[in-house]
Amino acid sequence: MLGPKPLIFYCGLLLTLSAFSIDIMLPVFAAIGRDLPASATAVKMTVPCYLFAFGLGQIVFGALSDRAGRRMAIIAGLGVYLAGTLACALAFNAESLLGGRLLQGLGGAAGPVVARAVIRDLYRGRQLARSMAAATAVFSLGPMLAPLLGYALGAAAGWRSVFAAMFAFGGALLWVAVFNLRDTARARVADAMQPAAMRRRARRFFACRQSRYFFAVGAWMTVSMHLYLTNSPALYRDNFGIEGLWFALLFASHGLGIIAGQVANRTLIGRYGTVTASAVAAALLTAAAAALLALALAGAAGVVSFTLLVFGFAVGFLVVISNAAALAIDEHGDMAGFASSIVGCGAFTIGAAGAALLTLLTGGALLAWAAVTLGVCGVALGALLRWRREMRVGGGD
């Protein structure tokens, strides 16, 4: 059975399943469009399509993890994920690919739900936030390695081979769950999957001001993350002529920003508290987005300046999201799976829907993307500063 540190690492791998499943596809978007054939917009919709199902599925697997245990929930979810991955690998048109992505996202939803619930089973307060930060640092392996692997596989064996890699990763996670994962749930909740009980627990979750507030902050911040994921290939290609290997390398560099952000996050949480650490990260995000907008308005954005500022964005956005998740579920240890699912469902459905809508409205242009990102980050910063002012004494920091 996995010990405490290997278990946190495994939780980090469960968290990165979504990033891996998205980022590995980015370098082969053009190849998918040529082969199926499909429009560029249809191919881009594989991102919010996956994420929307990923968000909704978390309600199911959160309740299941409280009813049947963390181990059984992740085994069931990964089984569905593998079925969806196989459907994507065999897709014959855009519609069948999107259908496979829906199934893949639905099953993959078990990953973060179980990861957050396991960490909440083991820790509370600042230690919960620090452990969440450690798992989120492992998450960075997805953005770092997936695009490079996607480019290499696409160049060597075609775009369908990226789904073979997803199948291998999901299969490895399933093997660990079956043979090496202990169940951390302290008790089974017999009525966890009954609609009336789920409605009662949802009311309890949103009745807690801290949970309600940081649910909103995390979901709002996730819009900016999904907006970048959806549009990053086009942003690099259309503005700087970057695609293929160079895109994979530059995108992978953002994973280093995630690691740097979570290392700093753990230190800041220990010294100043979770909300203060989040506010510092949001200030960095707002500054980076403002600089991107200024460069776009001046027509002076270059690939180096853009990549450096997006690196700064990567340092901060998961700090805000992971800390908000920790603060939202901290008060609900006896229903950690369901609380985790509410956080994940809200973040991913709102983030995916917002990203899809904003992509359709703006076309993913650099200027519009920078302006929207600045607005999202600025609102998140204001919300965090407000909480910090109001709740400095006994406010969950």
Weakly predicted, low-confidence segments = none
Terminal-residue CA separation: 33 Å
Taking the sheet with the most strands, its summary is: none
E-strand count: 0
What is the overall number of helices? 17
The gyration radius over C-alpha positions equals 20 Å
Fraction of residues in helix:
over 70%
Question: Taking all residues together, what is the mean pLDDT?
Answer: 87
Return the string of H and E elements: HHHHHHHHHHHHHHHHH
How does the helix and strand content classify structurally? mainly alpha
Give the amount of beta strand, in percent. Answer: under 5%
Characterize this entry briefly:
The protein is mostly helical. It is built from 17 helices and no strands.
Describe the protein's architecture and organization:
This protein has 397 residues and is mostly helical. It contains 17 helices and no strands. The mean pLDDT is 87.
List keywords for this structure.
single chain; 397 residues; mainly alpha; 84% helix
